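Morning!

This is the sequence you dropped in the shared folder:
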Amino acid sequence: MKKTIGILGGMGPLATADLFRKIVTLTKASCDNEHIRVYIDSNAAIPDRTAAILHGGENPLAEMTSALRHLEACGADCLIMPCNTAHYYLPQLRRLTALPFLSMPEIAAQSCAERFPGKRAAILATDGTLQTGIYDRALEQAGVPFLHPDTEEQKDVMHLIYDVVKASAPIEPERGRWRALLASLRGRGADFFILGCTELPLLAGALAEEGPFVDPTEELAKAAIRFCGCEVIGEENG
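The structure's back. Tokens below.
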């Protein structure tokens, strides 16, 4: 019997939908019945993680724990979370459950090491994710060199995340800003880009610009598929 996946979602809803879509589209299945059972708690009431970490905003842990309990009650065999900044709370969440809770930053960092050995990553993420160092630690452990956006570049990153994708604003008018951001980071030594906020793959998918990119949401989806004993499309049986 295949194992099941629990998605602790709502951070944000579009990112949650994107993760679920990637699980479905990346699972090798010849019919509906060969797909993985997925439980989703898209709890949009979870307070903003960046605001909590950096500005003394409401602690999201209570609402995250509520979603975790719902997923346990459903019968999930593993847990995943489509929000990079929320992984600041992953050690606390892991202490609250006996279920395996997969880490998106750790999985993404390992993919970086395998796909781009010796190359330097630029971490595109919220202020909260950058200041917690969750990607820094994961990349250091995987032996991947990296850089952060500078102050002006980071303003653009936050604008694209909060004022565009999270606000459901039109994406196409942001093409010039996105292209200039990537060019600036390349000029400072970036060889590839980690889309370290789950809104950014939605942006990058809509604005087809040269990367290359590592999509942590996609890497997390693949890891969850493998955990459940299924095959990822395009990968050989191991």
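Headline: The domain at 5-104+218-227 is CATH 3.40.50.1860 (Rossmann fold).

More detail when I'm at my desk.
O.
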